[in-house]
Write a structure and sequence with these properties.
8-stranded parallel β-barrel, globular
Length: 305
C-alpha cells in the first residue's frame, strides 16, 4: 500500500445525551480533522470501541470512509480479545472501504507469545494491512518483542502503535523506543500512541509519527509539532512540545476518553467547529470537577476557549 501518513487522530465517538451515536457530529469532526491534515482512526480506545455494537460499528466505519472521501486513509480499530471477532471485524472494515486496521494486543486473556503471534497473523490475513497496538495498561501484557520482530516481516503488518512499556531483566525497559529504533523502515512504521512521548520517539527513535488523542482538541498545533520534528527542526518542535505539555498531561488525569471529551465539550461551548463529543457511554462517566477546572485553565492559557 502507499505510504501511511504521520498524523492520525484517535477520534472520540460523540454521543447524544441518550448515549446514541451522534453520526452527524462524527462526520463534522472527521471533515474538520481531515482539513487540518489528520487522517481518522475510528473505534480505537478513544472511540470507546468496547461499548460499540455491531450495527454501530458498520455505520461508524461507513461514515468515516464516506466523509474522508479518499482524501486521507481511514484506520479502523478492529482488535478485540477474541481472534475470531477480530478477524470478522477486520473483514467487515475492508468491505466497507477502510484502508488499515488497528489491532490491539488481546486484553484480559494475556496470551503467551505463541498465541499473540497466531492472533496477529490471523488478523493480518483477513485482507487489510494491520498496525499492532501495544497498550499494556489496558491489556495486562505487552506484545512480546520477538513477536513484533517476526510480524514486522509479514507483508500485511505495516506498523506498530507504541503506548506501552514493560519490565525486562529486572529493569525498566521502554519497549516502544526499542521497536521504533530497531524496526522502523520504509515498510514497517512506528507511531507514538502517547502524545507526551511523540517528540522523544520521533527525534530519538525514528518513529514515523503519532496516533494522537490531543489532536481531537488542538489539531493545528499538535500537527505543527509533528511536522517540525519530521523536518528536523527539533528546537521549534521542543518549544511547541513544552507549550502543549500541560494539555498532554491534563488529557490523562482520568481514563481516556473522559478528559478529551470534556475538553472538546468546552471548546464546542465556546463556538469552535469539529468538537462534537457529547455524552459518555458507561462504564465511562462524567469527569471530576477538578479535571474540568484544570482543562478549562489549560485551554484558556492556550487561547482555545
Amino acid at each position: 500500500m502507499s505510504e501511511l501518513p504521520r498524523k492520525f487522530t484517535a477520534l472520540v465517538t460523540p454521543f447524544h445525551s441518550d448515549e446514541k451515536v451522534d453520526y452527524a457530529g462524527l462526520r463534522e469532526n472527521i471533515d474538520y480533522q481531515v482539513r487540518q491534515g489528520w487522517a481518522p482512526l475510528v473505534l480505537g480506545t478513544t472511540g470507546e470501541a468496547p461499548t460499540i455494537d455491531s450495527r454501530e460499528f458498520k455505520k461508524i466505519v461507513r461514515a468515516a470512509v464516506e466523509e474522508t472521501a479518499g482524501r486521507l486513509p481511514v484506520m479502523v480499530g478492529t482488535g478485540t480479545n477474541s481472534t475470531k471477532a477480530t478477524v470478522d471485524k477486520t473483514e467487515i472494515a475492508k468491505k466497507l472501504g477502510a484502508d488499515v486496521a488497528l489491532v490491539v494486543m488481546p486484553y484480559y486473556n494475556k496470551p503467551e507469545p505463541a498465541g499473540q503471534l497466531d492472533h496477529f497473523r490471523a488478523a493480518a490475513e483477513a485482507g487489510l494491512p494491520i498496525v499492532m497496538y501495544d497498550i499494556m495498561g489496558r491489556t495486562g501484557r505487552a506484545i512480546d518483542y520477538g513477536v513484533i520482530c517476526e510480524l514486522a516481516r509479514h507483508p500485511n503488518v505495516v506498523g506498530y502503535k507504541a503506548a506501552t512499556h514493560e519490565l525486562k531483566d529486572g529493569t525498566f525497559h521502554v519497549l516502544s523506543e526499542m521497536v521504533a529504533r530497531e524496526l522502523s523502515s520504509e515498510t514497517f512504521r512506528v507511531w507514538s500512541g502517547d502524545d507526551g512521548r511523540t517528540l522523544t520517539l520521533m527525534e530519538g527513535s525514528d518513529a514515523h509519527g503519532v496516533i494522537s488523542v490531543a489532536s481531537n482538541v488542538y489539531p493545528e498545533e499538535v500537527g505543527e509539532l509533528v511536522d517540525r520534528v519530521a523536518e528536523g527542526d527539533f528546537s521549534s518542535a521542543a518549544r511547541i512540545n513544552a507549550l502543549l505539555d500541560p494539555l498532554f498531561q491534563a488529557l490523562f488525569r482520568e481514563s481516556n476518553p473522559i478528559p478529551v471529551k470534556a475538553a472538546m465539550n468546552l471548546r464546542q461551548a465556546a463556538g469552535y467547529e469539529g468538537m462534537h463529543a457529547g455524552a459518555y457511554r458507561l462504564p465511562m462517566t462524567e469527569p471530576r470537577e477538578a479535571t474540568v477546572t484544570e482543562l478549562r485553565e489549560v485551554l484558556s492559557n492556550l487561547k482555545l476557549i
